[in-house]
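can u pls check wat happens w/ MRU
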Amino acid sequence: MQIRPVRWDGDALVLIDQTQLPHRYVEVRYTDWRDVAQAIRQMVVRGAPAIGAAAACGLVLAAQSIPVAEMADFRAEWLRAADVFASTRPTAVNLFWAIERMKRVLHTCHTPESARRRLRQESEAILEEDVQANRAIGQHGQTLIPDGARILTHCNAGALATVGYGTALGVIRAAVEAGKKVHVYADETRPRLQGMQLTAWELVQEGIPVTVITDNMAGMLMRRGEIDVVVVGADRIAANGDVANKVGTYSVAVLAKFHGIPLYVAAPISTIDLSVADGSGIPIEERAPEEVTHIAGVRIAPEGVRVINPAFDVTPAELVQAIITEEGIARPPYTVSLAQMVAKRSGEVFGDGGTAG
Ligand code: MRU
């Protein structure tokens, strides 16, 4: 079964409702862009590349629903929809990358009709390129995975978090496709449980051996010598290689460093944000306290207790052994290697002149 969490079906955007997994596999059809923005907020669709892809498609729905014929009015209204998408989730830079990409297309269009057509084409390109990038990440990344590796991952950086195949899980899939035997340990990933509900579901579907652990078990397993390598995804990577990813990644990285276990970050170029010098400039989303105080709608914390709920943390570059992108494997110093990767990618997209052409 191919997992495609974001796809077009005619004029409707189809999302897998990730809030219902692993109990129910439900696909929801969207024709109203406002509902797509809400789906991103509520994490029906989540994971950095998937959020970007969903927003791009949502902006196509917005273009289809704006009734005006005058281009200036059309543009103004469409840009208001873009602002709504930009306000949904602050950390994953893929969201802003996708919105900017769609804006660039809009600004080359002279009529609403051409804008509707060109925006739809651009959204399809974004969907297709994401899967290709993940396959390339997988090919590069699997060279770092020894046969027989016991791999720890945190959160879900799988097919569900992308348009397909996954980043961290793409590396694992590619290692399996290359004939390597692996065993995955999936951190359950409190408070939203993406590791237990999504990563475990994906791997069980494909028959890749997986064991779920609670987040606080990782250190014990590492001390017993039962983890060989850590592979995680990213929501935003700063120019110096600091990595924002699901909260808890930093703790795993510190543990891995202490135990001499390599930690690899797998992410597409669209996750690299060279405009942010280091991790201190990455906005960290604070989500509702109920995600911590409740499990499956049942309160587990005393009434009146204070909680915090930062959805991401920043792992400093010094704890990251390498960053695997579709353009290859970046190693320290990341200020140099990441800039090279980004330049290589934009050279391919824009040609030598560096403009859209
Ligand atoms: O809050 P989420 O579920 O959107 O967070 C997802 C993550 O942190 C992933 O690890 C990251 O987006 C990489 S997905 C390829």
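The pocket of MRU is lined by residues 46-49, 92, 155, 157, 161-162, 167, 194, 233-235, 245-246, 311 (CB under 6 Å).
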